[in-house]
Design goal:
Elements: E1 2-6, H1 10-19, E2 24-26, H2 29-34, H3 40-53, E3 57-61, H4 67-80, E4 84-89, H5 92-103, E5 108-113, H6 116-124, E6 129-132, H7 134-139, H8 144-158, E7 163-166, H9 172-181, E8 185-188, H10 190-194, H11 200-216
Parallel strand pairs: 1-2, 1-8, 2-3, 3-4, 4-5, 5-6, 6-7, 7-8
Bound molecules: SN-glycerol-3-phosphate (G3P).
Length: about 220
């Protein structure tokens, strides 16, 4: 399972990269705005800074919602850095754009996936990744994990190469549950990665080992 961090915060990206377990970064317009990154020039520069900070794919989302706009923006983003993956929304022109980029061997991430049908369509169009938003489904009392399960079954039935990127992860149980049902990638906040290491028995066990070592030395 690949671990991506879902943030545009450089310090957090560097911290996750420093752990040695990070495989990539996902961003979206809301996450960029949260870091105060506004204006095309600043946004492009920030993507470059992220690419420098991490070894792996960096999803950069287009703002256009029409085919021509998505192609223009996506090509500009892809030309920025070899690690950039063009993030495209699940809309009709987005499907056309996924196919366009797939034919050009430019990596894509189809975002805002909330149904198995949408994931099937994105795979047919040649998306590199699909991003089902599991936390937002849970928020409306619908099983986000159930969607990952459905997409896994469909992709395996037909050997689709599109990777399931479980997004809108909120906590460690989302990560563990997604790993159990075979999501290829998870993207979440730094806490969803770092908190995986926590267990009180590890802490008390280590304290006891150190205490016993001191007694014997
Ligand atoms: O990767 C998608 C993600 O940024 C959405 O997360 O927590 O806003 O639902 P959230």
């Amino acid at each position: 399972m690949k671990f991506f961090i879902d943030t545009a915060n450089l310090d957090q990206i560097k911290e996750a990269q420093g752990l040695g377990v990070l495989d990539g970064v996902t961003t979206n317009p809301s996450l960029m705005a949260k870091e105060g990154i506004t204006g095309r020039e600043n946004i492009l520069k920030h993507y470059l800074d992220i690419c420098e900070a991490v070894n792996g794919d960096v999803s950069a989302e287009v703002i256009s919602v029409d085919f021509e706009g998505m192609i223009k923006e996506g090509e500009e983003l892809a030309a920025l850095h070899s690690q950039i993956v063009v993030k495209i929304p699940m809309i009709k022109d987005g499907i056309k754009a996924l196919k366009y980029f797939s034919d050009k061997n430019i990596k894509t991430n189809c975002t805002l996936i909330f149904s198995a049908g949408q994931a099937l369509l994105a795979a047919k169009a040649g998306a590199t990744y699909v991003s089902p938003f599991i936390g937002r489904l849970d928020d409306i009392s619908t099983s986000g994990l159930g969607l990952i399960d459905e997409i896994r079954l469909i992709y395996d039935n037909y050997d689709f190469e599109t990777e399931i990127l479980a997004a809108s992860i909120r906590h460690t149980m989302h990560v563990i549950d997604c790993a159990k049902v075979g999501a290829d990638v998870m993207t979440g906040p730094l806490s969803s990665i770092v908190d995986l290491l926590k267990h009180p028995l590890t802490d008390s066990g280590l304290a006891k080992f150190l205490e016993d070592y001191k007694k014997g030395n």
